[in-house]
Write a structure and sequence with these properties.
Rossmann fold; seven-stranded parallel β-sheet; 12% strand; alpha/beta
Length: 275
Amino acid sequence: MERCFNLNVFITGASGGLGRALAVECAKRGYNLFLTDVDEDGLSSIKRGLERRFNVTAATCVSDLTSPQSVDEMLAILDKHKLRFDMLLNIAGLDFEGSFIKREREEVVKIATVNNAATLRITHAILSRRKHGSRFFIVFVSSLASMFPIPLKAAYAASKRFILDFSTSLNQELKPLNASVLTLCPGGLATTPEVVKSIEAQGLWGGLTTNPLELVACRTLDKALKGSCIYIPGLLNRVLSLIGKAIPRQWVAALLYKRWSNAQKQWLNLPKTIL
């Protein structure tokens, strides 16, 4: 476990599964936290738990990162209290399962709004509020899905590919500013009951590509502090990412369509015509 004390860490999506796990891991290390999410009850719950268990400072702000006005209101609070940060953990994200054409238009647009536009907005804002004169760290959450074209998760996989390419490029841009960017590309993470059902529906492969949430959180912070560029949890997932590069993408898409079609019909319990 890498130890850096007195870090101020900004976490988006802090009340969700991965966001909560990273907040707990940061608190274990004694970091000061600023947590944001759209879930007010979730934020209140994690703030109480962290301060009670770890005796750390955990400030919270309910904010909709897809709304420029909501973000500006949160930034005004940061500026009022002259808060500056050593680390940004971009965890907020959104996923939908199923056919693109069967989803409502605004549902699929929202994937890009949350996963991409909101991430760009908050990253730009917090970079200008980093502590000057010290190292700055950013973590983006992409996905193993970013390595492949995935039918029935097309918008999600594409949004995560955007994150992978953007964060890799940004890492180079920020090196002269003494900042580093880590891209987390996990396979399965049991973050919610719905995700657990999805993993179970994939059978053996779902279990093999899933990694313990707490372990991923710990190693993510360790790798970020070491200045690593990318972290793919699990040996099998790393092998799969390499295999995916060697096979024509249209073949990968066809294989994954068959796999996801079967898994989603089982998970969603929908008739074939819906998928």
